[in-house]
Amino acid sequence: MLSYLIEDGIEVEIIDQRLEKDFFGSVHQRITPDLICIGISCITGPQIEQVIRISAFIRKWTNTPIVLGGPHATLLPHQTLEAAFIDYVVIGRGEAPFLNLVRALKMNASIQGVSRVGYKANGRIVINRGFVPEINVRRIPYSLVSRYGRPLTVPIVSSYGCRYHCSFCVEKVLHPKYYEIPIRDVLFMVEDALRLRPQFINFIDDNFLLNRKRVMEIFSLCQQKSLGFLWICTGRVDEVLRLNDDALRFLKGRGLSAIYFGIESGSLKILKLIRKQITPEMVLKLNLRLRKEGIIPHYSFMAGFPTETREDIEKTIRFMYQLKQENPRAVIWKINTYTPYPGTGLFDLAVQNGFKPPETFEEWSRIHFYSTEYAAPYDACL
Hints:
The protein is of the alpha/beta class. The protein has helices at about 1-5, 25-30, 45-60, 70-75, 75-80, 95-105, 170-175, 185-195, 210-225, 235-240, 245-255, 270-275, 280-295, 310-325, 345-350; strands spanning about 40, 65-70, 90, 115-120, 125-130, 155, 160, 180, 200-205, 230-235, 255-265, 295-305, 330-335. The chain folds into two domains: about 1-130, Rossmann fold (3-Layer(aba) Sandwich), CATH 3.40.50; about 145-380, Alpha-Beta Barrel (TIM Barrel), CATH 3.20.20.70. The chain is about 35% helix and about 15% strand. It has a six-stranded parallel beta sheet with strand order 6-9-10-11-12-13.
């Protein structure tokens, strides 16, 4: 979204908390009287603790508006704005609404007509839903982060949303419609990313391999342009199984090194509960195929689903060991705790089985993949 702010004549800076040696010193250095706003992106969980710390620090030095975007602000905009230090929230994809908000703040204009933005007015919280035509991201100003040096990976988002309906997944709430960025613009992003000389490009779409024809076209065009690079991506078990051998080998020849899969469970009962539309047998077949082709699979799992039993979790653990035994190069990630997100298909069942949703923005900082305080209330089942 930053490219459109720059094109609009707005000066932009990025401060990456992960990479700054003195993050708060860098923030303080950039607090000037001409600041329009300070934007922070936030997901549910521990990042909220950082938002609270950063916002409290900012408020010591300036009353510049603080704008929160990202998944959590989209899920719970009203509750997020109840936090004293949050002035505005941007809902959903942020390119268009954030640009419109910044324009209004710059001109000291009314926010009343700015859609997909929430704000406070006269002691009450206002959420403007409405429709905003989306903006296609064509170029990414990687120069804004070049001072951090050569990255190991550069992320690229080439599509939003997913066509599947997994009942635990928040993606359908965040991006109800599946949308693909035009291939020409994806190639622009790749060219821009390669200027940073990363070791890998990481296509972090929710399901990069969903449209096989599109993926093949992207890398055929990369080949024509002599754009050679190593890359990793997300994928679904069934979608990769549908790729024929020639297609998979072509992608590997164009630099495909690893694919990230959300397997979630080794229990068929749980896989049906969460509407994953895969079976353990499909995963085993995929695992052997990727071992043969020399592509490294990364597998993630979850536990703590409502109605899940100890037997279900033990099946998952045994399944993880089996995958590693049959493909020693497979990367098995630790088991994450299921997080019930509002608006997802499984949320109401989680509440029925004892989950008590946090009542404040601050409390949501304690619910996340590694938490047991809120996200695993099903002790009676375990």
